[in-house]
Amino acid sequence: MFIGYARVSTVDQDPEMQMSALRAAGVKKIVHEYKSGAGVRPELDKLLRRLQPGDVLIVYKIDRLARSLADLLRVLAEVTEAGASFKSLTEPIDTTTPAGRMLIQLLGSFAEFERAIIIERCSAGRRVAVERGVRFGRPRALSDDQVGQAYAMEAAGRTAPEIARRFKCHPDTVRRALGRRLKPAEALR
Q1: Are 9 and 55 in contact (CB under 8 A)?
Q2: Mean pLDDT by 10-residue block, N- to C-terminus, for the chain (189 residues)?
Q3: Strand partners, 7
Q4: How is domain 2-96 classified at the architecture level of CATH?
C-alpha cells in the first residue's frame, strides 16, 4: 500500500501542493501534519508504527520527512525495520530499487563519517579549552575556600546540615563537596 506523508511547519501554510502531488502519484492514504520538522511529529511517529511489510512511504520532498541527514536515516531505518520502502517524488531516492537502497547506504556511510569527524573535533576542542583553564558544566556551589572551611567544620564535629546552613546551600551539596575533599594541608591555605 502507498502511504503518503505531507508536512508543513505552521497552520498558516497549506499542504495541498504536496497532497496533490501524492494523489497524482497514486497515493490513496495521506497523513499530514502541521509541525516543525525539528520537534516531535506525532502523526509521523504513528504512521511509522503502523507500517506493514510491502508498504511504501512516499513524500513529496525529503525535507518534508526529515530536517537532517541523521533524522532521515533514523526514519528510514524504522521504515526498513517494518519491511516497508521509501520513495521521494522530487529526489531520486526510491528504496524499492537496488540503486535506491545503495544510495541510502552511501548516505548512511557519509553521515557516520560526518558524526565521527564532529566528535573528534569537539573532543580536541574540549582538550584545548581544558588546557587553557576553561571549566565545563555548572559552576560549583562552593568555592575551594568554602570546601576547605567545610572540611574544617566537619573535622570539628559539625554535621552536613549545619555546614549547609552556614553556606546557604543544600546538605547534599556539602556531602558532594566533602567527597572531593582537599588534603588537610590544602584546606589550611
Answers
A1: no
A2: 87 83 91 78 91 93 79 87 90 80 76 82 93 88 91 92 94 88 47
A3: 33
A4: 3-Layer(aba) Sandwich (3.40)
**What pLDDT is attached to residue 94?**
79
**Dist CA 11 CA 125 (whole Å):** 41
Separation of alpha carbons 109 and 107, rounded Å: 5
Strand partners, 187: none
List the catalytic residue out of 9, 85, 109, 143: 9
- Cα end-to-end span (Å), the chain: 75
Provide the residue ranges of all domains of the chain, joining segments of one domain with +: 2-96, 144-187
Give the SS3 label for residue 166: helix
- At 184, the amino acid letter reads P
The answer to whether residue 85 is catalytic is no
**Which residue in this structure is represented by grid cell 546557604?**
168
SS3 per residue for 100-148: HHHHHHHHHHHHHHHHHHHHHHHHHHHHHHHHCCCCCCCCCCCCHHHHH
Q: How far apart are CA 58 and CA 1, in angstroms?
A: 10
| Cα–Cα distance for residue pair 187/148, rounded to 1 Å | 4
Task: Give CA–CA dist 1/97, Å, rounded.
Answer: 16
pTM over 0.90: no
Cβ atoms of 164 and 124 closer than 8 Å: no
What cell does 30 get?
A: 495521506
CA distance 7 to 18: 8
